[in-house]
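To: structure desk
From: M.T.
Subject: fold request, one chain
Message: Could you run this one when you get a chance? Sequence is below, nothing fancy, just the single chain.
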Amino acid sequence: MAKEKWYVAGLSFECTQCGNCCSGEPGYVWATKEEITGIAKFLGRTDGTLDKKHLRRVGLRYSLTEKPDGDCIFLKREDGKSMCGIYPVRPLQCRTWPFWNDNLKSAKAWNEANLNCPGLNRGEKRDFVQIETIRTQKKW
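Reply: Done. Structure tokens follow.
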């Protein structure tokens, strides 16, 4: 029998629009070609591509770019709130936050993520099946 996951009783999460998940230290927000096309169309680009201001190649993959302060290129901050400028077409990596494998390794890892994300452990409770569906999602 498989080992029972520590979050079998579910976890709560509610986005507070703090923007912490979209800013900070440099990193990668991976985007597939399909996601890139969707973002481009959302931005009104008829050719379905993004330029170097928005996208960078990393090996064989693509990642959204960051502003000099570490914010995602699409993060907008207004009146103390942060918003994604491409929210309806954001990449799968963004859609699945905070239910990432690294955050779900242990209760300790979840609580460490909570230090940077005030939305963890508050708001809507997701049951185990919902969490696993989000965590293992391959496409949106």
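Reply (cont.): Residues 38 and 89 are 6 Å apart (CA to CA). Let me know if you need anything else for the meeting.
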